[in-house]
Design goal:
The chain has two domains: 238 residues, 2-Layer Sandwich (Creatine Kinase, Chain A, domain 2); 88 residues, no CATH class. 47% of the residues lie in helices and 16% in strands. The chain has twelve helices and ten strands. The strands form two sheets. An eight-stranded antiparallel β-sheet has the order 2-3-4-5-1-8-10-9, covered by helices on one side. Strands 6-7 form a two-stranded antiparallel ribbon. Strand 4 and strand 5 form a beta hairpin. Helix 9 packs antiparallel against helix 10. 39% of the residues are buried.
Length: 338
């Protein structure tokens, strides 16, 4: 079975992926920012012991048992956070399944960051899966919670349900029609977070944005999903309207898309950032049926393997600087022609 990030999902012309994250802490144990090495090891051992009982094909892997390229490849897939990948205290671990649609980070900002992923817009189904897994874990561990405030977390803004729902969304037409800032301001006005593809404090790359709820206290899980779905559906509608507007001047649009495709398909070397920018136009062209040479599967592979660590995993060796740019172009040609 294909990993979730290589699949095609609901509304995937605009929505790249969905994620639900639940933050949990074990009662009577200090948060990771305050606990001792001994306490961190105890948390790891507790969760390692219950991993077989959780099920879902999850495997316990200590972070320091992974090489740097593998850790960064997981960041590029948005499966673990950049901060977690560079954890220097060797306190971290992950529980992950073969399809990589479930990944639980242990001792990141909280003791447990339970994450589930899917291609396209799948917030409701992911919420149900996350809660199902969470309920199994809660039968084996005593969570830190408060009768008035809900689940207790390291970051005060996560207290309550401690659920973050987020959607990765591709908005090239709104960018090209110069309506993107207006849309992003409206999203802010509805109490949502907008940031780049690697989380808070990062920039959008290739017209891709990550949108998530910023309130967890005083809302139920269903409220959070409902509110975010409403916002995302409006954004999808506006992006598709912008695409129709651009398509009216089809010569200009096709020229821009085919120039990007030509560079992507025939360049002899490409940087990561240039490849992402070109892919934004090429994905748009594929979704609109302008580019016939590609399909959703190839677009997903291209997005994955233009990234440095996953490119190195693909070719099976470490690459340096200039060699990486050359090899990236070779792999792009290989995927396009396959």
């Amino acid at each position: 079975m294909l990993n979730w990030y290589l699949q095609n999902g609901k509304d995937s012309d605009v929505v790249i992926s969905s994620r639900i994250r639940l933050a949990r802490n074990i009662a009577d144990v200090p948060f990771p920012i305050k606990f001792s090495e001994e306490q961190s090891i105890n948390v790891l051992n507790k969760i390692k012991d219950i991993t077989p009982s959780i099920g879902y094909g999850l495997k316990f892997i200590k972070l320091n048992d992974l090489d740097d390229i593998t850790k960064i490849s997981l960041v590029e897939k948005h499966i673990i956070s950049p901060e977690f990948a560079i954890n220097k205290k060797n306190q971290g671990a992950i529980l992950i399944n073969e399809e990589e649609n479930i990944c639980i980070m242990i001792n990141e900002e909280d003791h447990i960051h339970l994450q589930v992923f899917a291609s396209g817009l799948e917030l409701e189904n992911l919420k149900n899966l996350a809660i199902e897994i969470d309920e199994k874990i809660s039968q084996m561990l005593n969570y830190a919670s408060n009768e008035n405030y809900g689940f207790l977390t390291s970051c005060p803004t996560n207290v309550g349900t401690a659920m973050k729902a987020s959607v990765m969304i591709h908005l090239p037409a709104l960018t090209m029609t110069e309506n993107i800032n207006k849309i992003l301001n409206i999203i802010n006005g509805f109490g949502m977070n907008i940031h780049g593809i690697y989380g808070e404090g990062t920039q959008s790359q290739g017209d891709i944005y990550q949108i998530s709820n910023n309130q967890t206290l005083g809302l139920t899980e269903n409220d959070i999903i409902k509110n975010l779905n409403v916002i995302i559906e409006k954004i999808i509608e506006q992006e598709r309207i912008a695409r129709k507007y651009l398509a009216k001047n089809s010569i200009d649009l096709e020229d821009r898309i085919y120039r990007a495709y030509g560079t992507l398909a025939y360049a002899t070397k490409l940087s990561t950032n240039e490849a992402r920018k070109l892919l934004s136009y090429v994905k748009l062209g594929t979704d609109l049926g302008i580019i016939k040479e590609l399909d959703d599967s190839k677009i997903s592979k291209l997005y994955l393997y233009v990234q440095p660590a996953n490119l190195q995993k693909y070719v099976g060796k470490k690459l340096e600087g200039y060699e990486t740019e050359i090899k990236r172009s070779e792999i792009i040609k290989e995927i396009i022609k396959s």
